[in-house]
Every structure is written in C-alpha cells, then in structure tokens.
Amino acid sequence: MISDDQRIALCKLIMGLMDGSITDHGLSVLNQQLAQSPEALEFYREFMKNTALLKNGIDLSQSSLSDPISSDFWAELSKYEMTAPAVVVSEQEEGRNIIQKVEYPQREKHKLSKFQIVTLIISSAALLFVVFILNFVRPKEGSIKVATLVDQVDAEWTDEGVRWTNGVGFWTGDSPYLLTKGFARILSNNGADVIIESPAKFEMRDTDEIFLYYGKVACSVPPKAYGFKIQSADFEITDLGTEFGVTVRQNQSSEVSVFDGKVEMASLYDKHYDNVLTAGQAKQVSYGSGTVSDIPCDRYAYKQTWKDVLTSVEVKGSIDFLRASPKSLEQDAFESDSKMFLIEERKSVPLQNEITGLISSGQYTSQDLTLDTEAIPGQVDKPVDSFLLHIDRVGGTSFEQNLVLNGTIAFRCPIVGVLVDTDKIIESDSLFGNPNVDYSDDINRGITGESSTWREIDESTLDVLTLSEDRKTLMVKMVAGNFDQIRILVESP
C-alpha cells in the first residue's frame, strides 16, 4: 500500500505530465515508480480514468485539441468576440396585449466552440486535482506549515514531488527534507532565520524546532523566537537570545559554536549535563561516547548571514581561502612554499575615486604593458568587497628556482577590478585593506613594474592571470621568486 507522501508525489508528477511541466528527471521517476509498484500503477489508472470520465461528459467529436492551446485558444476567443452578432432589443408597442395560445419553441442544440471546450477541460482538470488532493493526498492530521523557503543558491533537493521555488513551505509530519547541494535560507513562522549548508537532512518538528540528522546550520534568532531549538541525535541546543551554528556529521563528532548571545546545551547521552554557552564558546560531542569537550569557536566555518552565502568564494588548486586575516601580511610574516592565500579584507566599500586595474575579461601576463591601465569608475552606489591574494616563500629573499603555483578563484558576483601594480596596491591599502593588519611597502609587492622586467627573458617565468568572460572567475599562475600580492575587488551583493 502506498503512503500519503507517495500519493502526493505521484499526484504532482501526473499533473505535471498532463500540463507538460514535468521535468525529464521527474518523468524518469514517474516511469520507474509505475514499472516497479503495482499500487502506484493502480493509482495512476484510477487518476486517468476519472480524467476520462470528466472529458466524456463533453462532445469532443467536432473539435481537435491536438493544436497548441497557447495561441489558438486566445485567437478563437478573440475571433468570437469580434464576429458575434449584436443583441437587438425590440421596442414594445404601447397598449395592452392579449395573450394568445402559447407555443413553446423547439429547444435549440448548441455546439460548444473550441475555446469553451478548452475552458471546461482546464476547469475539470483543476477540479479533479482538488478532488484527488482531498480524497487521496490529504495533509496528515495535525500537519501545519511552520517555515518558508525564502532563498537558495545552487540548491538541489531530492524530493521531485515538490517544486523547490522560493516561497514553498515546510510542514510538520513530512518526511525528512534532503538538501544535496548548495545553500538554503529558511524563515520559521516565529522569525528564526536559518541558513542550511548541504549536504543536509532535517525535519521541521515545530515552528521553533528543527531536528538535524546531518548538515551545517547557522541560526539568527530574534527576541520573538526566543527558545528556538536545534536537536540532533546527540544534543539539543536551545536559543537564549543569540546567533549560533551547529554542525552534525554522519558517524562523526558534532559541534556547536556561539557567535553572539547565549544558548543552553543539553546532552542526550547524559540527562544531568546542562550547560549555558556564551559568545565565543564552542563544544564538540564525540560520536558514540557523547563526550563533550571544549574547542575553539570558528565563526568563519559558518555562513552566518545570507550575504556570506552570496559572497562565498570557491578556490581550487594551490589556493586556501581565509576569512580571518593574520595580523601581519608584511614580507616574511606569513609564509608557505606550497600555498597561495586568498584573504578577505573589507566588505561594502564604496568606490569614491577612480582606480586603474584589470577590468576586462582575457588573459594577461606580467610582461603585458597594458596591465593596470583601464579605469575602474568610482560608483558610490555600487560598493565592493576586497580580497588579497598573498604569496610569501619560506625564508630568505632569493632562490635558485622559482616556485610555480596554480589555482582558480570563483566568486558569485562579478570582479570589478584586479590591482597588480605595486604602487596601486600600496595606494589602495588605506581604502581596501584591513585596518587591523600590517601591510608591506616593499617595491616587489605586486607582479608588475621594474621587478618584473627580468621575466621577459623566459615566458615560463611569467605570472599569468585569466579573467573569465562573465568576470566571476580568476585563474592564476604565479611564479613566485619570493613575495607577491594582488588585490581583487568584487561587486558587493
């Protein structure tokens, strides 16, 4: 016997098949279910039989409905409106009329026009859908909508029976929701703002409670949602007016970090464990034993705001992304022989003055004389976020062999400009640099200028930057003799 959830999914897939909105994947799922489940096949037959019964109540013999409805339907309606005879109202003569023998006219048979037939079929299909919803896919008793999907980025969900568009609701009593890719922002009915990072599996237990099987969530809880809970198989976190993050891993340890305010943490292994965590504190729960231990609070491991999601960066190759900058980015202060570091500097900085840098898509080398010659226009109404790509080799100032590092940086918003000239980078430190970080005034800080002229001898020693057509991806090949930096300006979301 198929469940209510299966009936709901089947009904939506069949309706999608009937109105042509079903996806290729949805059609594959429907075919597979009909082939493997006799109950699903019987449900489909019953559905189609009722559809046929509704249609058979109308004489369709004089009309073909194989034409596309979208144009013909409205054309037929327009033609009818323009050619329909005018209604003539005759004037009655004054005086008393004697009623003669009443003869009833023969009842006239009317043929339904094409647009009338289509209208009836559409209405019938809608009525049929309502009937099926009421009789076969009624919401579970006591099921209520407790939250809404308000935004998503690159999100993929496993439930093909739901159209995962912004505004769709989350209900109590539903099967667990599975987010297999991307990010989702959920707003509970009481105002709790929850950002879920894939892969994640969760249930909406109530307006103020989420059960997290696995995944990563960041919660911002306003006063009116005081007491909001995130529960897992290991612990329960209750908001006491705060912002916090929870990570639950499959068959691994779980973590909770408090960014602001405080939470109450209860262990489901130990009924006597009840601890209040405040801002800056974090706990880890060991898998299996349930042992609770202190860990550093890593607020940068979570997307705390939706803007963090929109400005999130994907790096590949020999690049590591750091949201928290070291105290010093001067030469010899933050070194590595295997990595370049992309460091977040400042957010939402207005471009008040004109700056020159790379702004057009294409490939550039450190030998190019056109580097940093294009003007980045100052636009107060379009602020930017700044990032610094930092390379500093370990120890010393000269090396017999250059270090070649390759990587790719992908942003969600367009790159406004790339500063590669030493003077331009130094000049922009006060505007785009982190005010709490020390920067170098070294003449070799950038990848252009006098320090790069020697590289013209051998093309294999040239730094190469490639800016994609949509200006959201920067591919980097850096030949580091010792110390190099470039600054990247990205449009704020």
TrEMBL record:
Q: Does the keyword Transferase apply?
A: no
Domain named FecR protein: which ranges?
196-264
The superkingdom listed in its UniProt entry is: Bacteria
Species for this entry:
Anaerohalosphaera lusitana
* Membrane-spanning residues: 117-137
Under the heading InterPro entries, the entry gives:
FecR, Ferrdict_sens_TM
Q: For this protein, what is any one GO molecular function term?
A: sigma factor antagonist activity
Record protein name field: FecR protein
Keyword field? Membrane, Transmembrane, Transmembrane helix
